[in-house]
Specification:
The protein is an alpha/beta fold. The chain has two domains: 229 residues, Beta-lactamase (3-Layer(aba) Sandwich); 216 residues, no CATH class. It is 30% helix and 22% strand. The chain has eleven helices and 21 strands. The strands form six sheets. A five-stranded antiparallel β-sheet has the order 2-1-21-20-19, sandwiched between helices. It has a five-stranded mixed β-sheet with strand order 15-6-4-3-16. Strands 9, 10, 11 and 12 form a four-stranded mixed β-sheet that branches. A hairpin with a 5-residue loop joins strand 20 and strand 21. Helix 6 crosses helix 7. The longest helix has 39 residues. The radius of gyration is 27 Å and the shape is globular.
């Protein structure tokens, strides 16, 4: 080889070798800038972030295998498992509707039994037009004018009203209301607080299921600042704080500890409105939780089955895909918890453990290492939940290859448009181009999903912030980081 050709070959080798470090240096530069940006925006917070292409190439990987509390990002896993396990989710929900039947008690009188099958959308509202408890009351009224007891039966799922790891201080709120196979009005009640004369207690309006110890005060100026609590198992609301003269009424959403009892209480009121005399009491039928497979060894417990009876009437709720949209766009905890149990009932007893096992089986199919996740509920209220950013992105990529991928993606909030993202990313490139599930819990923020970069390609991402100090939020830091990443890809 001549001297000239030799020099040219050496130059080619040098160029090809130096090109890889240069590209890596450019990639690292973007990651370093994002890391610095996150540190400055939210000092002391522990961040995890993975951004990847649909082909699986990771563009950003910050603490990719560390495990984080995902908050409501848990709903990504729950709703995806529902698409896997539940059939015909785009058709009317023939398996989940509530039903009512009449049975004779020992004295020969008729009892009204209201049974739940895990539907989250049963309503007793005056304006209800579909999936209405009033329709079941009408069916009873057409059959009899006198009944004995009204019984709420939620045995379709074991009596596991709260998942492991949910903070007790959420129980009295809508975020932590109890879970039951018999659910009406989202298992919550609305307390209205209306200002009166300064220095006196405000007026409260609340259905008589609860009573109120009213320690609040009406004031002339300032800002309304009301707080309430309720001891677990109690039906006494303790109200305190201030409400300002001239303010519109303040509304507080109260959680319910025994949803089956509340549903029977509402049905009793509807029956009485129809002129039916209720002679007996409001009662409930619960089913104790069964041991997990690990606890019971080789013994298997068959799924619980209801008595072989014909219902007097039953409801057929709208398609489940509508409920999955509520879960992701509104981040509705009750609906998510019920969905996890419905998924668990397809191959088990409808317990939380059965639902979690279905999620684990899905993640195994997606190739996600078992070391990257642990779940204890379906909503994300449990502080026991853990997931790594890389695990979430792996699942999102797997979802993209499923026949239901587009239907599932439509359930996600759209940046600057709707759901829990309606006010985020407005005025940025990602407005209308980011589809993701949010997550907020104590000292925790999360956002995971899909976004369209300026290049036009779709990127998958999972962003987690844990240990946010001082009751602050890392939401703005996450949003600005994603905007910056989208701008350079």
């Amino acid at each position: 080889m001549g001297a000239t050709m030799k020099a040219f070959a050496i130059a080619l080798v040098v160029a090809s070798v130096s090109a890889v470090p240069l590209r890596a240096q450019q990639t690292a530069s973007l990651q370093q800038r994002i890391e610095g940006q996150l540190r400055q925006a939210s000092p002391g917070t522990r961040f995890g972030l993975v951004v990847a292409t649909r082909e699986g190439q990771e563009l950003i990987a910050i603490a990719p295998d560390q495990r984080f509390i995902p908050a409501s990002n848990t709903k990504i896993f729950t709703t995806a498992a529902a698409f896997v396990a539940l059939p015909a989710i785009d058709r009317p929900d023939t398996s989940g509707g509530a039903r009512v039947r009449l049975e004779r008690d020992r004295g020969g009188l008729l009892d009204v039994v209201l049974e739940g099958r895990g539907d989250a959308r049963l309503s007793s509202a005056l304006e209800c037009v579909v999936n209405c408890l009033s329709a079941l009351a009408d069916a009873v009224a057409a059959r009899t004018r006198r009944v004995d007891d009204v019984i709420g039966d939620d045995r379709w799922f074991p009596d596991e009203r709260w998942s492991l790891g949910m903070s007790w201080n959420n129980i009295h709120t809508r975020s932590g209301t109890a879970i039951s196979a018999l659910t009406v009005d989202d298992n919550e009640l609305k307390l209205r607080v209306l200002p009166t004369v300064p220095g006196t207690s405000p007026r409260v309006e609340l259905p008589p299921y609860f009573t109120v110890e009213n320690g609040a005060v009406t004031v002339k100026a300032g800002e309304s600042d009301l707080v309430f609590d309720r001891l677990p198992g109690s039906r006494v609301i303790r109200l305190a704080g201030t409400v300002v003269v001239g303010d519109t009424d303040e509304s507080l959403n109260l959680g319910i500890d025994d949803p089956a009892h509340y549903a029977a209480w509402r049905l009793k009121a509807l029956l009485e409105e129809r002129g039916i005399k209720v002679r007996g009491e409001i009662k409930t039928r619960h089913r104790p939780p069964v041991p997990t497979d690990q606890d019971r060894g080789e013994d298997k417990v068959l799924p619980w089955r209801p008595p072989e009876t014909t219902p007097l009437a039953r409801l057929i709720p709208p398609p489940l895909v509508d409920d999955l949209t509520i879960i992701n766009k509104e981040s509705h905890n009750v609906h998510a918890e019920l969905m996890l149990r419905r998924v668990g009932r397809t191959k088990g007893d409808g317990s939380v453990a059965d639902g979690v096992a279905a999620v684990e089986a899905m993640l195994n199919s997606a190739g996600v290492p078992r070391t990257l996740f642990d779940f204890s509920d379906g909503s994300g209220m449990s502080t026991y939940n853990r997931v790594a950013p890389r695990a979430t992105v792996m699942l999102l990529r797997w979802i993209g290859a499923q026949p239901w991928a587009q239907a599932w993606r439509k359930t996600l909030p759209i940046a600057g448009v709707d759901g829990t993202l309606d006010e985020r990313f407005k005025g940025t490139w990602l407005q209308g181009r980011l589809f993701a599930k949010t997550g907020t819990l104590n000292a925790t923020n999360a956002l995971s999903g899909y976004m369209t970069a300026r290049s036009g390609r779709t990127l998958l991402f999972a962003a987690y912030a844990n240990d946010v100090p001082g009751g602050g939020s890392a939401r703005a830091a996450i949003d600005s980081a994603l905007v910056a990443i989208a701008a350079e890809n």
